[in-house]
Amino acid sequence: MSTNALPAQSGDFPAWYGEVVRRAGLAENSAVRGAMVIKPYGYAIWETIQRELDDRIKATGHENVYFPLLVPASVLAREGELVEGFAPELAVVTEAGGKQLEEPLAVRPTSEALIWSTYARWVQSYRDLPLLYNQWANCVRWELRPRLFLRTSEFLWQEGHTAHETEAEAVAEALTILHDVYADTIESVLAIPVLRGRKSESERFPGAVETYTLEALMRDGKALQTATSHYLGQGFARAFDVRFTGRDGNEQHPYATSWGATTRLVGGVVMAHGDDRGLRLPPRLAPQQVVIVPIAREDERADVLPAAGAVADELREAGIRVRVDDRPELRPGFKFNEWELKGVPVRVELGARDLAAAAATVARRDGGQKEQLPLAGLAAAICDLLDDVQAALFASAREERERRTLQDPQSYDELIEYLGEASGFAVAPWCGDADCEARVKADSSATIRCLPLDEQAAEAGACVCCGRPAVTSAVWAQAY
Amino acid sequence: MSTNALPAQSGDFPAWYGEVVRRAGLAENSAVRGAMVIKPYGYAIWETIQRELDDRIKATGHENVYFPLLVPASVLAREGELVEGFAPELAVVTEAGGKQLEEPLAVRPTSEALIWSTYARWVQSYRDLPLLYNQWANCVRWELRPRLFLRTSEFLWQEGHTAHETEAEAVAEALTILHDVYADTIESVLAIPVLRGRKSESERFPGAVETYTLEALMRDGKALQTATSHYLGQGFARAFDVRFTGRDGNEQHPYATSWGATTRLVGGVVMAHGDDRGLRLPPRLAPQQVVIVPIAREDERADVLPAAGAVADELREAGIRVRVDDRPELRPGFKFNEWELKGVPVRVELGARDLAAAAATVARRDGGQKEQLPLAGLAAAICDLLDDVQAALFASAREERERRTLQDPQSYDELIEYLGEASGFAVAPWCGDADCEARVKADSSATIRCLPLDEQAAEAGACVCCGRPAVTSAVWAQAY
After folding, report:
1. How many Cβ contacts (< 8 angstroms) between chains A and B?
2. Fewer CB near the last or first residue (10 Å), C or N of chain A?
3. Are B161 and B175 in contact (CB under 8 A)?
């Protein structure tokens, strides 16, 4: 653990991000360009995300499965948009078992192709539907400009793949996943507020009829796409010749969805909540929610250490994830810095003076406030405090997003100036024309992040780019 | 779900196995030779195994991490035995991102090489030790004679990789994993009794100084290696130049272990417990522990279905995983067959006559016994019954193993005859010479499965092969 200060977040955000990820022990680069080693602290955060997502995926009626890593080139090629979209990012196995393969095998960039080629065997009648399956897996998409967690050549994710009897059911599925699985996890556990929307055509997943997305704002004013859920129509069913006999006795193609969330979310937590001292973890996500630092001279250790252990036991009893940092060789100040860097939500300092007062000194990571609390009832007080921290991080991120959202710029120039400086989200009417979208991108590097779902019925308005009548409002930003 | 009878287990064990795996919905073959699709029911069993192993891995002080899938050929080549052992089974990525790679990347067959090349950065002082890390991952080892779960070109597993200050500590680690993580899970959850032993030199993991193993007997008389834990000495530390400054101030190499358990365990459960009617799942492993089948004519459904729901709620309340099979279009007999095939430990039949008697008919999958039990106190009675089934499956597998274990054959011929027919385990003194081991293999196809750990101090005895003084007893069997 280096004792040098971190780069200032406001000064060089990318350098700050990289240093926080490395020094907090989340991840590091590996011998393979673009593929990262996820270290214990980073993986523990991912495990919580996994468990929270998995609980919600199962609660909404899905089961887990596992499909193979390697996809024959001929299978991948059957859905044209998919193979075209992913071809530049594929890693390809050409030799196996000491021999050149007759047919190359792609390392899965996503599993629609292999899964729909299998669903052809699983679906005959409407009685076989819906298929509601999910898998936890790794993926490879070759990445030329990798960044830890945000863009890596290999990433971990879950990918859901469902098949339905009707279009309405499939669209409802894609939205259930967006709201009840992804938005609920990201807002209530990761404490990151998200905009719910649809993608414009140019930003859709290859092969999707509609891509639903959750967009979050990072502390540098750039957007992060945190999770997506796709309504795929009948394209994959047609490409892989999946048919079922419907209630009316006629053969037809089922309707598909797919949806994924990845290890990128760990990077989102760093960038949505972190500050100049490092990570700030929401308590529901934190591997350790409380760290207890005993403060004792050599002759006080025999009193203070057992007291710290007793407090830890009491907190554990109350369901709090707690750790005692009793490393004798390190000074308290060093430990404070380290746990602040790692974003532990609450620090409890326990010294001889605290004990004499039957109290402990309790510091919040989010705002830095420190107070002395009585040992009697400490566990209950800290449970409340953790709830407060969770709510405060969410509220603070939401305020930050509101502060950084430009509503209805008065002119195209104002829009471009705002977006070009990566100042945050800009919300403005859009005519729906891809040329206007492309013009904004060329002039500012910003893209349409989403067309909000919660929009009121189309308001009167003129496209911010061309002045023609708008068909929707759009949210623009520079993005990761 | 086919209604044809399964092949008889005693008639054609491999055919029986394949049909049970497919018809019970555990797994099926995929478009990629040797790689399987793990279906929802099979994956649910794997998820329980994962959770049970993971809890024990964490309880013994380990943390989870994730290392990349792709290993540069030059990294893999640095430990000679490892690369030699796995070279024939490698799948190799030679193209990525649309270009020929300068250096080919192996899809990991196991991760010692990549992990130890990383540990070189993580270890400087004895204070950095031990490293106690585990990962959940997929692996590829090209398989010419694949069988679902037992030998697949891709499999899922956990692999632990630890580094220690002393040899004694590393050996103790390998044994802790063997006993407290693997044997405890396999015996108390999977209900499969295991022999604990060391491998002979010819059967060791490439690069290992000592391979510890757990060997189980399947119902066809063949052995299954269920999990292994390796003491790796300093070989990997030397190959990857991992050094630390010891307590005495001198530089030295740490000592390594690695250990893994795979999706093969699902196949082990099928082969250790299954019978002519299909799977028999131990309750602690079963995705559904109880299935309730309402038995009702059309005019009785309004009474029977709510009663079945109420019983299900009561069982759920008691922590039992329960499912009501109320599919109206299927006959009870069909449902009984299906849930027997799927190995659900306890079936509850609930009909109008049962209800009139304030009772339910309860059938065990393991022995087939059926009894009527009063509805009052049913949940407690079924909890006890599930414990009984768990214990009975273990006891039955242990008795079967004892019945099929030949202790101290009187002659080499008796040994070879017994082993050649795959009759089970044979335990006999061995001189330790690889030539004797090779001779048995040539004459019978059987290998030394392990040198038991619980052996008494070397007994007087003569090698069953050559008559020279024995150094150990050995357990032989044909194996998967």
Report:
1. 165
2. N
3. no
